[in-house]
Design a protein that fits this description.
The chain has one domain (27-135). The chain has one helix and ten strands. The protein has one helix at residues 2-22, and strands at residues 30-34, 37-41, 45-46, 51-63, 66-76, 79-89, 97-101, 105-110, 115-122, 128-135.
Length: 136
Amino acid sequence: MKNVRSSAWFLVAIITCLLFLSCKNELSSSSDFLIRVDSVRAPLSVSSGTSFDVEFFGTVGYDECNSFKTFNKVNNNNKIIIEAWGTYDKTDGTCLPGLVLLDGQKLNLTIEFPGTYNIVIKEPENFVIIRQITVN
């Protein structure tokens, strides 16, 4: 009888520990996500070695816990692949409603060599926006 009671308490203790370990504290949760860009604005042509801006437009999120985080950029020959990343941060536990937009967020680029380049904006669900630019 004593062994059964000890085993039962041990089992209850293990289950309780597992439940606490599996709980996620939502008050300190944050996560990054790829932003769906609606459109971009970039010049059609630029001079080599001259910096220019690519402007991004789209919805980051629908409450103030969403914000723009960063651009990730990879140069691959004559292709410039860009991702716009946002973050959802509910650290303080409240998220006031409000539309958060990219609203012309700028990424400054410089292309050193003349040629025709594709600026590829990676989107969620494997969609892309492609803008062609001529560098003289």
